[in-house]
Amino acid sequence: MSRYKDELNLVKLGANLTKQREALELSVEDVSEMTGFSAQTIRNIEAGEESSLSYVIAICQALELHPTQAFDFPIKLEPRYKLSAARAEKTRLTQRIEGFVAGDYFNEGRTAKDVVTELNEVYHIQTTTSAVSVILKRKVNEQLLKIDQAGKQRIYKKN
User: Fold this and answer.
1) Residue 12: inside a domain
2) Local structure of 149: helix, strand or coil
3) Which end of the chain has a smaller Cβ tally under 10 Å, C or N?
């Protein structure tokens, strides 16, 4: 698989950097000295070649140009790919459970099955205990919940 490169927007960014450099009457070599990057690196970025964000920020600093100004050009605001229905459902499920964690729901111990039931009753979401358990375990790892064992059942409760 080839690396992604947004050629159109990189060219626009490079043009903005070039415009600012020229407005300050600086040469590529001047910017090279001010950043510690090679003159060829500066030329490549101005030509729209791929670069790290750190390099762009350093060039902006040398040019006394805020990065938001360097990126001040129309950009099509849509993702490269649509979010799949399965991923959207998982995101929605995670957000709902995070709402339970943020609220009072886990002030008393709850099982994954309790959470499945609550999701169905409150949000009409049909899901499985295994899907919910994965999210709850993540919240335990984030130290937002703790697990107590009651026989074979895992009980999730706020820390």
Assistant:
1) yes
2) strand
3) N
Q: Which long-range contacts (CB under 8 A, 24 or more apart) does 38-46 make?
A: 45/13, 45/14, 45/17, 46/14, 46/15, 46/17, 46/18, 46/21
Reported as a pLDDT band with limits 50, 70 and 90, residue 3 is confident
| CB burial string 96-114: b at 16+ within 10 A, e below | bbeebbeeebbeebbbbeb
Whether 122 and 97 map to the same domain: the answer is yes
Residue 132 DSSP label: H
Residue in 93, 103, 104 with CA at minimum distance from that of residue 138: 93
pLDDT band at 1 (very low <50, low <70, confident <90, very high): low
pTM for the predicted model, two decimal places? 0.64
Does the structure show a pLDDT above 90 at 90?
A: no
Name the residue range of residue 111's domain. 85-158
